[in-house]
C-alpha cells in the first residue's frame, strides 16, 4: 500500500500577510489558490492583536488546510494554536521567534506530535538551542531583500549547509522568489518560506506551481 501522508518537510512554505490580504475574502481566496498549487506548509501571520478577527481567520484557514491535507502553522500565538488543536485541528502547529515565548513550554502544551518551528536568524547557537528544546524545523534568514521585513537581520546561504548537522528540516526565509529559490534549495534548505513570492501576485496558485517546478530540479 502506498503511503499518502502529506510530507510537510520539503517544498514551498507560504506565509500570509495582512497588508497584502486585508479582508477575509482576499485571505481565503489567495490561500485556497496557493493550496491548489501544492504547499508543504501554510503559516497564518497576523499582527493585528484583534483576537476575534484572528480566531475567525485562523479557524477558516484550519478548515481549508484540512481539506488539502496541509498543516496550518500559527505565527507567534501559542494560545491560538492550542485553541485550534483543542477544537480538533490536530494538524495545527506554531512558529516562534526569539521574542515569542518559550519553545520548551510550547512543546509541553502542544505535545510531541505538533509541528513547532523556530526562528534562528543567522545563528547556529540559536539553532542548537531550538533543536534541544524540541523544535520541528529551524528557520534561517533573511537571505535576500525582503519587501515584507526589510529590517530582518541578513544571513548568508553557507549557513544552511552548516545547519545540516541538526538533522531537522531547514527553512530559508527572506526575499525567496522564483529567481533564487533554486539557490536556497541547493544550499540546503528543504523548506522555502515566502510571503511575497506567493501572495505578492494575483495568481498564488501559478506562483506556487512555478516555485515547485524550480524545486523539482533539486531532488
Ligand atoms: C518560517 C518562518 N521563519 C521565520 C519567521 C520569523 O519569525 P519572527 O522572528 O518571530 O518574526 P515575525 O514573523 O513574528 O515577525 C516566520 N514567521 N516564519
Ligand atoms: C517574516 C519574516 N521573517 C524573516 C526573517 O528573516 O526572520 S524575513 C520575513 C519576511 C518574509 O517575507 P518575504 O518572503 O516577502 O520576504
Ligand atoms: Mg514572531
TrEMBL record:
Domain Thiamine phosphate synthase/TenI positions: 12-197
Superkingdom to which the source organism belongs: Bacteria
One Pfam family linked to the record: TMP-TENI
EC number of this enzyme: 2.5.1.3
Chain residues that bind 2-[(2R,5Z)-2-carboxy-4-methylthiazol-5(2H)-ylidene]ethyl phosphate: 146-148, 175
Free-text cofactor note: Binds 1 Mg(2+) ion per subunit.
A single GO molecular function term of this UniProt record: thiamine-phosphate diphosphorylase activity
Similarity remark: Belongs to the thiamine-phosphate synthase family.
Designated name of the protein: Thiamine-phosphate synthase
Source organism of this protein record: Modicisalibacter luteus
Amino acid at each position: 500500500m502506498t503511503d499518502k501522508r502529506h510530507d510537510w518537510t520539503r517544498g514551498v512554505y507560504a506565509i500570509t500577510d495582512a497588508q497584502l490580504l486585508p479582508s477575509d475574502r482576499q485571505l481565503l481566496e489567495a490561500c485556497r489558490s496557493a493550496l491548489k498549487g501544492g504547499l508543504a506548509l501554510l503559516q497564518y501571520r497576523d499582527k493585528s492583536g484583534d483576537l476575534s478577527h484572528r480566531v475567525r481567520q485562523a479557524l477558516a484557514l484550519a478548515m481549508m488546510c484540512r481539506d488539502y491535507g496541509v498543516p496550518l502553522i500559527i505565527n507567534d500565538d501559542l494560545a491560538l494554536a492550542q485553541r485550534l488543536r483543542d477544537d480538533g485541528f490536530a494538524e495545527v502547529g506554531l512558529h516562534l521567534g526569539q521574542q515569542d515565548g518559550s519553545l520548551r513550554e510550547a512543546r509541553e502544551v502542544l505535545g510531541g506530535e505538533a509541528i513547532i518551528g523556530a526562528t534562528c536568524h543567522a545563528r547556529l547557537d540559536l539553532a542548537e538551542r531550538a533543536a534541544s528544546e524540541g523544535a520541528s524545523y529551524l528557520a534561517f534568514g533573511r537571505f535576500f531583500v525582503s519587501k515584507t521585513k526589510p529590517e530582518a537581520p541578513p544571513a548568508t546561504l553557507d549557513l544552511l549547509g552548516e545547519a545540516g548537522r541538526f538533522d531537522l528540516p531547514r527553512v530559508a526565509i527572506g526575499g525567496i522568489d522564483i529567481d533564487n529559490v533554486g539557490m536556497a534549495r541547493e544550499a540546503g534548505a528543504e523548506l522555502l518560506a515566502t510571503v511575497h513570492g506567493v501572495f505578492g501576485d494575483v495568481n498564488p496558485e501559478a506562483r506556487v506551481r512555478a516555485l515547485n517546478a524550480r524545486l523539482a530540479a533539486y531532488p
